[in-house]
Amino acid sequence: MSRPRVIAIDPFDCGCTECITGEYVPLRYATDSQIAALIRRDLRNHTGKEFDVTVRYIVTDTQPLRGSTPEEIVVTCGDRTWTFEPYLLSGSLP
Ligand SMILES: [Zn+2]
Description:
- The protein is α/β, with parallel strands linked by helices.
- 14% of the residues lie in helices and 26% in strands.
- The protein has one domain (8-85).
- Helix 1 links the parallel strand 1 and strand 2.
- The chain is elongated, with a radius of gyration of 15 Å.
- The N and C termini lie far apart (42 Å).
- Zinc ion binds at residues 10, 14, 16, 18-19, 24, 26.
């Protein structure tokens, strides 16, 4: 039997039936791309938590902030942090 597609992120240590069958993922085990999908709202957020999203840019004399592309995205929730490349958010950021 293949595992179902993940549709939601559940609370940190959740062990409900859906987390066991793979329909949901406990926050503790969420991958970078699953967190990116949650930020994009392509996965449901069952955690009841806020996510702190930091977009990091590198600015130089020849590369001003305006028009530059983010270097990385850092998402923090409680003690857990995910760091990933902006393309996981489809590249379109403010
Ligand atoms: Zn669960």
